[in-house]
């Protein structure tokens, strides 16, 4: 028989003994309320929620438990946790865009834009956009020679007029000298006015406009270029060109002083050939302009050009000489 099978005091075998229940203490009859002993007992017992100080020699929480990870570097502002940190360029772009402009900054930006636009317009207006920019060296040399020739002609005219004045002042018979110079001046003015015929060295310019694309203003530009080069007498077909000559009409139907002229347009020009021909052939000049209009241009020099188309001499109706 085992020890478990030993009979208890009641005579029943194998039944374990029940633990005795603690007797309930009686409440004191006097000495305060009934809740004070319980309160004192609760104060003596340590609270479960309050951490207890470790005893001397006992392992602390740092020793007994696993070590806590140290705090890592703080991620940059704006970067989400677990993402790659922003680079310097990305932070710069995020700071620049979208722009955060104040009223003063916007005003300064508008003023700078207006200033830049004004400078660009000024530079463009003052830049040299003529055809001389892409001209060859020999063309530039020819243009310089033409300018030198114009300067020389003006100086010769100045010396001639000074010589005439000196002759008038030093002549014993000033009246006869004055009449002589007056006749010479009348002849020169007759050539310029187209009332007398003229001959001399010069060039012949022929413009063939088979497609009728040459406008009247192109012919006027040709006259102006020839006059600037020193032309003294000009004739187009059978019309004498003078100071009051005008061009009208459309392409292929050009009229000079109200008279229709047919193509080819033949120019007879009296002047210095060495000055007239280069003036027409400069880069961007008359010849190139007419060739762009699909016209053919030919220039030839001659030692004898005859300008015989005349204009009637008209006496002015109201203007009179101030010497009378």
Automatic annotation (TrEMBL):
One Pfam family here: DUF881
Biased composition (Low complexity): 54-64
Stretches with biased composition (Basic and acidic residues): 15-50, 158-168
Lineage: superkingdom: Bacteria
Name this polypeptide is given: DUF881 domain-containing protein
Homology family: Belongs to the UPF0749 family.
Region (Disordered): 1-91, 158-184
Record field: transmembrane: none
Gene3D superfamilies for the chain: Protein of unknown function DUF881 (3.30.70.1880)
């Amino acid at each position: 028989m085992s020890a478990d099978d030993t009979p208890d005091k009641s005579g029943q075998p194998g039944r374990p003994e029940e633990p005795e229940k603690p007797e309930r203490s009686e409440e004191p009859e006097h000495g305060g309320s009934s809740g004070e002993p319980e309160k004192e007992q609760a104060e003596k017992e340590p609270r479960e929620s309050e951490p207890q100080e470790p005893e001397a020699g006992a392992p602390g929480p740092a020793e007994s438990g696993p070590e806590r990870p140290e705090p890592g570097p703080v991620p940059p502002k704006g970067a989400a946790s677990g993402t790659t940190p922003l680079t310097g360029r990305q932070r710069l772009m995020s700071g620049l865009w979208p722009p955060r402009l104040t009223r003063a900054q916007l005003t300064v930006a508008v003023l700078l834009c207006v200033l830049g636009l004004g400078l660009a317009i000024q530079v463009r207006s003052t830049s040299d956009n003529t055809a001389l920019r892409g001209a060859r060296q020999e063309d530039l040399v020819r243009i310089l020679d033409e300018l030198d020739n114009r300067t020389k002609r003006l100086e010769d005219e100045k010396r001639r007029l000074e010589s005439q004045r000196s002759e008038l002042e030093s002549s014993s018979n000033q009246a006869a000298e004055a009449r002589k110079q007056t006749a010479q001046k009348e002849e020169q003015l007759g050539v310029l006015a187209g009332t007398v015929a003229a001959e001399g060295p010069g060039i012949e310019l022929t413009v063939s406009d088979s497609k009728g694309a040459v406008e009247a203003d192109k012919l006027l530009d040709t006259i102006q270029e020839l006059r600037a080069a020193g032309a003294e007498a000009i004739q187009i077909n059978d019309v004498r060109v003078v100071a009051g000559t005008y061009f009208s009409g459309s392409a292929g139907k050009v009229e000079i002083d109200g008279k229709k002229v047919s193509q080819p347009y033949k120019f007879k020009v009296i002047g210095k050939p060495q000055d007239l021909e280069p003036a027409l052939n400069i880069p961007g000049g008359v010849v190139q302009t007419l060739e762009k209009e699909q016209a053919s241009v030919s220039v030839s020099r001659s030692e004898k050009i005859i300008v015989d188309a005349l204009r009637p001499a008209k006496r002015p109706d109201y203007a009179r000489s101030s010497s009378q």
